[in-house]
Each structure stands twice: as C-alpha cells, then as structure tokens.
Specification:
heterodimer; A: 249 residues; alpha/beta; two-stranded antiparallel sheet; globular; B: 329 residues; 7-stranded parallel sheet; 5-stranded parallel sheet; 18 strands; 27% helix; 29% strand
C-alpha cells in the first residue's frame, strides 16, 4: 500500500506570534517551527496503513521554503521512506497551494493521499479536500481512524455532537485529526537513517494568489478583569455581575 | 447585480442557528452591495416547508433542492449541487457556516469553481463594491485582513460571531429537484452515531463550561455537567488540551490551537491555568470567567471576572446560584 502524506512547516503552537514592521507578515525571530501537529497524525496514519498492508512506501510531500527540509526529515525519522520538497511560498490562498500539490500528485501511484485536517497556522481546513477535488479523488475529512479493506477505506469521523462511519472508494484522499494516531517518537536509529533517505527538492512557484493579506493585526489585548473575590462566598457577586454588568446570563 | 448566496445547513431535517446566521450575514452583505440575499437548502423532500423561516432572516429567495439522497450530508452529492447553483446564480459572494459540514463542503465547491475560499471568517463587510474579510490566523494570535481578486468570493463564517437578526420580511421559496445519482457516489455514510445525548457541540454553544487539570480526576466532571445543566440550553462542555491528552475527555471538546477555536457569549474556565495555545482558542469570547486556586495563573490575565479559590467549593455554589436564578426567571 503506497501512501502519500502532505505536510506543512508551521510555527510551534506554544510560540508567541508578533506582527512584523511591514504589517503583513509575522516576525519570525525567536519563532520555533514544527511539523503541523495534525500532519504528524497523518504521517502516523500513513505508516500504520503501510504496516497493516505489509508492503508499499510512505512518501512525504511538502510545499514550503527550503527550511521545510527539516520538517520532512522529522517525518522520515518517524519511518517514511522518501520525501519531495516543492520549494515555494504558500499563502493564505489555499487553492493556490492545492494546485501546486495536485500538479505534483497527478497520476500518483498511491491509493491513499493523507493530509492533516488543518494546518496549525492558517487553520482553514481546505487544502486536503481541494487537492482531492482537483485530482478527482473522493475525500473524507476529519478522520479519527480508518481501516483499508477490499479497495475501500472505512473511516470514523467526528461531527457536531456525534460521529460517523463513512466508506470511501480507493484511490482516495483523507484528512486526519486527533484520534487513533498518536505519533510515534523517532528512534535514534530512525533519525540516523532519515539522513540517508531520498529527499528530492524542486522549484514549484504557485500561481498568483487570488486571496491577498492586506494586513495582519494583533488581537486587541484583553484587559485583565477583576478578581471578584475568594472562595464560594464570592459566587453571589459573580452571578450578579454576569447578569447585570456583562449581560451574559 | 451583486447578489449573495447563503448555504443554509439542515441537520437531521432541522434548519438551525448556523443557517440563520449565514442568511443574516448574507442579507447584511447584500445590503452593502445593493444586491439581494438568497439562501440554498438541500435536504429530503418536505424540507421546503421550513424554507420560509429563512425569509424572515433576510433571504429574498430560498432555493430548496429536494432529493432523497440529500437527506443527510454526502460531500460529493452536496458539492456538485451547490457548485452548480452558484455557477447558475451568478452570485457575487457565497457564505457557508464554518461548521463541520461547512468546512467539509466549502473547499470542494471552491475548487470546483476555481475560486479561493476564506475559511472561518469573523469579519465581513463591503464598501464601494469591494468585500473585506477578517479571519483569525494562528488560532487567534493574529488576524488577517483579506481581499479577494476574483468572484464569487467564498467564505465560511465562524459560528456565534455573525448574529442572526430577524427582519420584518418574507422570502419566496423555490423548490427544485437536483440530479443526484446515488450509485455514482464514491463516499457513503454507513452510520451516524451520537447526537443521541442531544448535547450541543462546543463550537456552537453560546455558553461554555470548560475544565482543566485542576479538576483532578475525570470522575469530577459531574460538577461541570451540573453547571452546564443549570445554565440550560445553549451551554456545552469544553476541555483543555491537558485533560484531552490525559484521556479524561474526548478531543471533540478540546478548546485551543490544536482543538476548536470558540467565541461564545460566556466562557467559564474552571481549573484551567491558561496555556498560550488555550488562550488563543477562547480569547474572543465575549465574557470570560476564571475559577482557579492559583491567583497567579495566566488565565486571570484574560478573564473579565475571576474567583480565586478551590473549585470544589466554588462550583457547587455557582451551580446552586445559577439554578436559583433560572428558576426565578
């Protein structure tokens, strides 16, 4: 079972974000970058699908700047077999990104293309289903676990207030969320082996984005409110404030 | 002509709050663009009976596509019908709800129409025919102000941000029968579970009662459920990443950068210290209440009201006071 997993390099979710002087980009100084956490679930899901099938490869693809090599190496250290870095600059226009990926993945010999359900930076949840649409593949989003059998994948996904079991014909694209795929740690052996695994790099300029960031702003700081009091005796006053001042109850 | 289409979601045959919010947002935008707001509902035969309700929220025309195969959401069937209607209608903008369904559907429609999508937007206005969009990035650590170069402009709107406003209006309901071949669908929903406990999802709740590590044990969640139930309809439970990672609560309840970003009217953070990625996910709540025994916890830095104390003493009292308040209503 060949699996392709698309991954993105994003700022660490624990990092502070500041807008730079230009006013439309973030200031990268002091920002640590990681593989998007949802993409890490997708890599884990891909490795398990390959292991369950007993054959095939897991190949990683990323669209990003040269530093995304590091992101791909971390996936190779988890156990992926090879990687392709499409060098370019992803923007807020997810369709432009999807076109770059679809161009690379057209005709790919892989029954499964996996994505994280969303990138932890732009958080748009769109590139996976867009790539699938462009490639003409069926797609299931927000998958917490799946099993492959008889040319189909049976997927579990969360919806508001419940869950669904969805069957999809292969070849397909799935977007993976937190669920069954707690990512494995890369072993020292895996990290050493990753250095020797093939990582192809090619230029892949995206078309001009049709959605533009005019400016980035930081959220208005929330002024710290007040401590109403200590312990249960403060509760009646809290309830009064919520009702009369905040109009929230 | 600069008409705006709202995709009005029905769930289990009911047109709900997310649909009204989308229609209201479309009506406001259409007003600024000097066009009309339309709504599109897909569902099983008979769903058109509820279509008139959307007229009261500003849809001049409510297009209702009825087909047995559209009773529940099927991504391929829905995407094909919606893309077709958008193409035919010549809309200037299309608004989806950023619910699970909307987030699944909108990108497919966008790719079919070859136009970009701004997802989960929190600001949408038009001036001089130009649409300006605001959406959070890095889970609300920053906001991106966007402009689209093409039409139709596709957006999905974050639940609870665009308020549904009932107008003194009525819309025309136009029913059509889309062509759907159930045999050709490559994605099939085999089973829908849950919705059974009838609980609201955290992303759609007007009031959220969230618990963190300070709850000490998953057994203690009864206290939070008690508060949620005392508040009544519109309230849902949330959780911090720490307790989801510990396996105490399902991921569906997680609030924060690797969970859901929420914007309720009222957010109770109980026993949550306030890690940066949690704050990112809830800081746009209208009113935040923190209950924590550590007076130095970062959560107090964003809370409007705080109580410093042992949550095991404070919660029962809070539940009692709110119950009393509600029964007095």
């Amino acid at each position: 079972m060949n699996v392709i997993v698309c991954v993105k390099r994003v700022p660490d979710t624990e990092t502070r974000i500041r807008v730079d002087d230009s006013g439309n980009e973030i200031d990268p100084s002091g920002v640590k970058f990681i593989i998007s956490p949802y993409d890490e679930f997708a890599v884990e899901a891909g490795l398990r699908a390959k292991e369950a099938a007993g054959d095939g490869t897991v190949h990683l693809v990323s669209f990003g700047d040269a530093a995304a090599q590091e992101t791909l190496r971390s996936g190779l250290a988890m156990g992926a077999d090879g990687a392709t870095l499409l060098v370019g600059e992803p923007t807020v226009d997810g369709l432009a990104t999807a076109k770059v990926l679809a161009n690379e993945l057209e005709g790919a010999d892989a029954p499964l293309i996996l994505f994280g359900v969303k990138a932890a930076d732009d958080d748009q949840q769109q590139v996976g289903p867009m790539v699938a649409t462009l490639l003409g593949r069926p797609c299931v989003t927000g998958v917490t676990s799946f099993e492959v059998q008889d040319g189909k994948a049976v997927c579990h996904r969360e919806v508001e207030g419940g869950s669904e079991v969805v069957e999809v014909d292969l070849p397909a694209a799935l977007t993976i969320t937190k669920g069954a795929y707690e990512p494995r740690y890369a072993s020292l052996k895996g990290i050493m082996a990753a250095k020797k695994k093939p990582l192809e790099q090619k230029d892949a300029a995206a078309a001009d984005p049709q959605l533009r960031v005019v400016r980035l702003t930081e959220p208005a700081p929330r002024s710290a409110g007040r401590i109403v009091g200590e312990g249960p005796d403060a509760v009646p006053e809290l309830v009064r404030l919520l009702r009369e001042e905040a109009n929230a109850l | 002509m600069a008409d705006v289409l709202a995709f009005a979601e029905q769930r289990d045959g009911q047109i709900g709050g997310s649909a009204r919010e989308a229609v209201s947002a479309a009506a406001r935008l259409a007003g600024s663009l000097e066009g009309a707001a339309h709504a599109l509902v897909l569902g099983a035969p008979g769903i058109s009976e509820q279509g008139g309700d959307l007229g009261r929220f500003g849809a001049e025309v409510v297009h209702v596509g009825e087909h047995e195969a559209l009773e529940g959401y099927n991504p391929e069937a829905y995407a094909a019908v919606v893309a077709e209607r958008v193409r035919e209608g010549g809309y200037h903008a299309v608004i989806f709800p950023a619910t699970t369904l909307g987030k699944d559907l909108a990108p497919r429609v966008a790719a079919s129409l070859d136009v970009p999508l701004a997802a989960d937007v929190t600001g949408l206005e038009a001036e001089g025919g130009k649409i300006s969009i605001v959406r959070p990035v890095y889970s609300g650590k920053a906001f991106a102000h966007l402009e689209a170069e093409t039409t139709p402009v596709l957006v999905s709107i974050r639940p609870n941000v665009f308020h549904a406003a009932e107008l003194n209006a009525a819309g025309a309901v136009e029913t059509f029968t889309p062509e759907v071949d159930p045999q050709a669908l490559r994605v099939r929903v085999l089973e829908r579970k849950g919705a059974g406990d009838g609980q609201l999802d955290v992303s759609e709740a007007a009031i959220i009662v969230s618990g963190g590590r300070g709850m000490k044990d998953p057994e203690n969640w009864g206290l939070l459920e008690g508060l949620r139930d005392a508040i009544g309809s519109g309230a849902a439970l949330g959780a911090s990443r720490a307790v989801v990672d510990a396996g105490w609560r399902p991921h569906g309840e997680q609030v924060g950068q690797t969970g859901k970003t929420v914007a309720p009217k009222l957010y109770f953070a109980v026993g949550i210290s306030g890690a940066i990625q949690h704050l990112a996910g809830m800081r746009t709540s209208q009113t935040i209440v923190a209950i924590n025994k550590d007076a130095d916890a970062p959560i107090f830095g964003v809370a409007d009201y705080g109580i410093v104390g042992d949550l095991f003493d404070v919660l029962p009292r809070l539940t009692e006071e709110i119950s009393a308040l509600k029964s007095g209503d």
